Amino acid sequence: MESKSTDWDILIVGAGIIGCSIAWHLRSSSLKILLLERSEPGGLATNAAAGILGPLNETSGPGPLLELMQESLTMYPSFVRDVQEASGLSADLVPSGILSVATSPDEDSKLQEKWKWQSSSGRGLSLMGAEEIRKLYPDLSVDVTSAIHYPHESHVFAPRLLKGLLGGLGHFPVTFRGGTSVRRISPEPGGALIAETAGRERIRSRKIVLTPGAYLNEMDIPGPVPPVIPANGQILSVRIPDFSLRKVVFYPPKGYFVPKLDGTVVIGATEETVGFQTRVTPKGIMEFLSPLEKVCPRLLEAPLQSTWSGLRPKTPDGLPILGPHAELPNLIFATGHYRNGILLAPVTGKKIAELLLGNLSPSLLQPFSSARFF
Ligand SMILES: Cc1cc2nc3c(=O)[nH]c(=O)nc-3n(C[C@H](O)[C@H](O)[C@H](O)COP(=O)(O)OP(=O)(O)OC[C@H]3O[C@@H](n4cnc5c(N)ncnc54)[C@H](O)[C@@H]3O)c2cc1C
Question: Atom 37 of ligand 1 has which residue's CA nearest to it?
Answer without folding.
Answer: 212
